[in-house]
Amino acid sequence: MISLYRSRNEVTAMPMQSTRRLSGTSGKPSFTGRRRTPLQAKTMNDYKDFEIHYRFQGEPRHFNHQGKHMCESDALHFATLHAGVGAIEGHICAGPVRLALLYAEGLGVTQVQWKRT
């Protein structure tokens, strides 16, 4: 393989070291190093389980959610969706957390708490 090496405004071609080694007697190439998994396979391992507890009009409710991360404003958004009063396109965590709290309280969702399970 050839790689381009740049040195002081000139480009020259230099041979690259191969990552393959020929094994002892068989002559077949054997790859060194660890094999990488595809990006799609790694993303499923990134999901974590969260448990969200909240009160809707004074009634305690809870549910489980899977996601890559969770913050207070995300928990508020998912709690309003679970209660059936939130909108998907109007993501309340886009602004400051205090505004999201006021908005959720206006919809009847209070005391939102979450934890990783």
What would you note in describing this structure?
With 117 residues, the protein is of the alpha+beta class. It has a domain at 42-116. It has 3 helices and 7 strands; from the N terminus they run E-E-E-E-H-E-E-H-H-E. It has helices spanning 39-43, 72-83, 97-107, and strands at residues 2-7, 10-15, 20-22, 29-31, 48-56, 59-67, 109-116. A 3-stranded antiparallel sheet has the order 6-5-7. Helix 2 (72-83) runs parallel beside helix 3. The two termini are 49 Å apart. The model has no long low-confidence stretch (mean pLDDT 76).
* Spatial ordering of strands, largest sheet: 6-5-7
Oligomer status: single chain
The number of strands is 7
How large is the radius of gyration? 27 Å
What is the CA-CA span between the terminal residues? 49 Å
| Structural class determined from secondary elements | alpha+beta
What does the largest sheet look like? 3 strands, antiparallel
Specify the overall morphology. Answer: globular
Query: Helix and strand succession?
Result: EEEEHEEHHE
Strand content: 35-45%
Helicity range of the residues?
Answer: 10-25%
Catalogue the unreliable spans: none
